Amino acid sequence: MMVNDLLPKQEDRTVLRGGGFAGVLGSVVLLVVFAIVAVFVGTFAGPEAEVAAYPDVQVARTVENGLYLVALVAWAVSFAGLYRALRATSPASAFYGAVLGIVSMVVLAAGALPHVVTATVSDLYHAAGTSPAERAGLVAAWQASQSVIDSLLVVGLAIAPIAVLLLGAAMGRAPAFGTRLGRGVVGLGAAGTAAAVVLVAVPESPVGVVGILVLVVFHLLAGWRLLRLPARGADGS
Q1: N or C terminus of the chain with fewer C-beta within 10 Å?
Q2: Cα 119 to Cα 71: distance, rounded to the nearest angstrom
Q3: Are 124 and 130 in contact, with CB atoms under 8 Å apart?
């Protein structure tokens, strides 16, 4: 008897559909985050301008960061669901892909709440009696904290495409996913990997957006497919 057969049918359905729903939800939430940034936050001329304007966008930033963390947690659940669906036909690719995917989400989540630090810096910057020299030092502290956040983003986006590539290969060998979807996901992973190479070499490059979009599309596709899978996994057993 296969280990897969020992799992209750309802448990399989819950894991697969839960993972699928989480993947789609995470992508939708992240698209909402993009909209919040575009409408309520915008861009700034430099670090000092961002610190000076922070009180005006603090609420939007807090909501943005909170939703971003929700999306990352949902995607971690989606990776776990994909492992459950793909392990019967591609145990190695499914396992390593899911592990790397979850690790990348953990790294990204570690930098998901920068407002915890930046709000304090902003309060000090705008406090009465703060001298120009002190404000300059606070702007430098703001930049330093942002550099840590950016480094976590680069690491997370460097790991995630490898997970997408491995899971795409696993999907191509799973009848319930299909070769066509598998190849499409591998293509997404390749695009994300190329963007990651550029991002590692030039951290300030805007190409990081490509890595995020790859994850959005990947989890939309994979999540929707998980929602339609039979209860006992990709092999139908």
Answers
A1: N
A2: 22
A3: yes
Distance CA 220, CA 27 (A): 6
3-state secondary structure 70-109: HHHHHHHHHHHHHHHHHCCCCHHHHHHHHHHHHHHHHHHH
Closest CA to 50 of 127, 146, 152, 148: 146
Q: How far is CA 65 from CA 52, 53, 110, 127, in A?
A: 19, 17, 11, 24
Domain ranges for the chain, please list them. 9-228
Instruction: Tell me the pTM.
Output: 0.89
pLDDT tens by residue, 117-149: 888 898 888 887 888 888 899 999 989 988 999
Structure token digits, residue 27: 């992508």
